[in-house]
Specification:
With about 110 residues, the chain is an all-beta fold. The protein has one domain: Jelly Rolls (Sandwich), CATH 2.60.120.260. Strands 1, 2, 3, 4, 5, 6 and 7 form a 7-stranded antiparallel β-sheet that branches. The N and C termini lie far apart (about 40 Å). This is DgyrCDS14429. InterPro entries: FA58C (IPR000421), Galactose-bd-like_sf (IPR008979). It comes from Dimorphilus gyrociliatus. Pfam families: F5_F8_type_C.
């Protein structure tokens, strides 16, 4: 599998505006029957939007966040955000990785009135 790092992204629409406090990321592993193939994202950028149109980067467009150092599907890499993110749409932009697999969970509160 090939990923065009720096151009591709994963986008999630949350359905309403959330105050997002952090996230967990995980990779994946095909580790059975003699196979030990790991897939994960090592660095990424994060952007967000209130309307799915104009996106802003978390901190700025040069801010690169650390992902996983191995597949670790059962041990998440937890990020707690210092900067408040209010968004209904989030994008994860992979920068580097190993074959690229990504699972993530977001942590926050919904029903934010602006």
């Amino acid at each position: 599998m090939s990923v065009n790092y720096g151009v591709a992204w994963v986008q999630v629409y949350l359905g309403e505006i959330y105050d997002i406090h952090g996230m967990d990321t995980r990779g994946d592993c095909w580790c059975s029957n003699g196979h030990n193939e790991q897939y994960y994202i090592t660095t990424f950028k994060l952007s967000y939007s209130l309307n799915g149109g104009q996106f802003n980067y978390y901190v700025d467009e040069n801010e690169i966040l650390n992902g996983n150092v191995g597949a670790t599907w059962n041990i998440p890499n937890r990020k707690t955000f210092d900067k408040k993110i209010e968004a209904d749409t989030l994008r994860i932009h992979p920068i580097t990785g190993f074959y690229s697999a990504l699972a993530f969970e977001l942590y926050g509160c919904g029903n934010i009135s602006l």
